[in-house]
Amino acid sequence: MMPKSVLVTLVPRVRWQRSDSTGGAGWPAPDGSPLVLAVPGEAVALHWLDLPDLAPAQAAAAARMALADRLAEADPHITVAPGSGLRPVAVVAREQMAGWLAEAARAGWKPAAIIPDPLLLPAPASGWAVAQDGPRVLARSASAAFAAEPELAAAIIGTDATTPAQPALPDPLPLDLLSGEYAQVARWQPDRMQFKRLALLAAAVAGLWLGGDVAALLRASSAASAADAELMTLAPSTTDGPSAFAALQAQAQQRGAAGGLAALAGPVVQALSARPGAGLAGLSYTPAGGLVAGVAGGAGEAQALADALAVAGLAASPGTTRATADGSISDVTVRAK
User: Judging by beta carbons within 10 Å of its beta carbon (0-12, 13-18, 19+), is residue 95 exposed, middle or buried?
Assistant: First the structure.
């Protein structure tokens, strides 16, 4: 278990345990520690598939095809363990994922990882590792894992050899259900240098776009290093990101870039920096189409950005959402009113 981490299991009752062996019943008080949520194996179908080393989204797509005739619903959430070769694949209903996350949120926690509780057992070289967990049995072999009532567990295991085992958080985790659209997205928080570079682009490039001077725009891209040096002279001394960007944006307007990219990028960056669950995955701009910001963090974060930009006096509309290897990206188109 990672230092200072908290393991919370939900069944047969909610209980918690820290890496220092302290623990108790119910949910612990939130203290900023990373929390790993162990969810009941009865709600997660675990399969072992032989798959090549693929990006997470590609691995999930390959697993979905391989399990097509065994899926109980049309669009379950699928997570594939990292690596290559024979490895576990978890299939769980999206409504179930939402319920677990909501339960954790009510207790004041946002899980750092979610693992089916049968995978808390070590994988034996042969036979089954077995643990009695209240009125249920956890069992794991080299190529299977499940949670069930004792009678059903005995029928599944049959005459195979069993070894008593103690559930414990493995390091590293064999599988994390917080993948795909549920994956943790690190918020893009520009440092002072990044704010300076973005402000430079707003100042030097937006005016060229507005003027329609495409040739000049291409020439400007080859002069980025010299422009960076100029920016170091113009940049204010403040280390506060939003303040630095606002000051540089004002300078950009003085240099003739008002109304274009400079007027749109600033509010976008500042609005995203205020939302811990959002990330900035990309920016693109054309005078006719406006600024398109790729927002990581889900469709909800994209809508929140659009609402914040509307308050700032801009016209913003969420667009399509597409899956990526690390989750999803939603486009938000921003224009001046």
Answer: exposed
Sequence-separated (6 or more) residues with CB below 8 Å from residue 118 = 41, 46, 138, 139, 140, 145, 146, 147
At 67, list the tokens: 């399990």
Q: Which fold has domain 6-181?
A: Nucleotidyltransferase; domain 5 (3.30.420)
- What pLDDT, on the 0 to 100 scale, is given for residue 235? 40
Tokens of 25: 């019943």
Structure tokens at 92: 């769980």
Instruction: Give me the residues paired with residue 138 across strands.
Output: 131, 147
Distance from the first to the final alpha carbon of the chain = 52
* Of residues 113, 78, 111, the one with CA closest to residue 92: 78
User: Taking the domains of the chain in order of start, what are their residue ranges?
Assistant: 6-181, 192-336
Q: Is the dihedral of CA 156, 160, 164, 169 positive or negative?
A: negative
DSSP states of 157-173 as a string?
Answer: HTTS-EEE------SS-
Query: What 3-state class would DSSP assign to 176?
Result: coil
> At 323, phi and psi to the nearest 5?
-75, 145
Tell me how long the chain is. Answer: 337
Question: What does the pLDDT look like over 256-295, one tens digit per residue?
Answer: 444 455 567 778 777 777 776 777 777 676 667 777 888 8
Residues whose CB falls within 8 Å of the CB of residue 229, separated by 6 or more in sequence, listed in order:
none
The contacts of residue 238 (CB under 8 Å, 6+ apart) are: 244, 247
- Tens digits of residue pLDDT in 195-229: 555 554 554 444 434 444 333 333 433 333 333 33
Please name every residue paired with 148 in a beta bridge, in sequence order, or none if there are none. 137
For the whole model, what pTM was predicted?
0.58
CA distance 138 to 141: 11
Q: Please name which of 203, 204, 237 lies closest in space to residue 223, comparing C-alpha atoms.
A: 204
Alpha-carbon gap, residue 25 to 28, rounded angstroms: 8
